[in-house]
Amino acid sequence: MILTSVGTEQQALEISEELVARSLATCINILPCLRSIYRWKGKICTDSEYVLLIKTRRSLFEAVSKAIRELHSYELPEILEFPVGHAEPDFHRWVASMATGVAVEAEPEPEPSFD
After folding, report:
1. Residues 91, 67: Cα–Cα separation, whole Å
2. Fewer Cβ neighbours under 10 Å: the N or C end of the chain?
3. Where are the domains of the chain?
4. What is the pTM of this model?
5. What is the Cβ-side half-sphere exposure of residue 56, based on CA atoms within 13 angstroms?
6. Are 52 and 5 within 8 A, CB to CB?
7. If one looks up domain 2-98 in CATH, what number appears?
8. 73 close to 79: Cβ distance less than 8 angstroms
9. What pLDDT score does 79 carry?
10. Once rounded to an integer, what is the mean pLDDT over residues 98-106?
């Protein structure tokens, strides 16, 4: 699992949708309205942020990290990997089968039938 934080809900949605579309993640939980206090460039800052919990394969960390840096507005985005010690087997298989790193084209909407 990978964690990152962003400054707006819109950016949380954009990064999440793009990672799933690229098959770099199976599922992403967006945790809203967290308060972050940090030191940046000599100043203590306080901001509201959204945290993304990204379910993916460990082997895709570099690709996910690269995509986050490409899409993120922060100069230095937080990108942390947390190994998962145990997972429910069916959930684990689902994550592994969906996070392939190979983008899948969205299936077209079926044409309406007027029969």
Report:
1. 24
2. C
3. 2-98
4. 0.86
5. 28
6. yes
7. 3.30.70.120
8. no
9. 98
10. 81
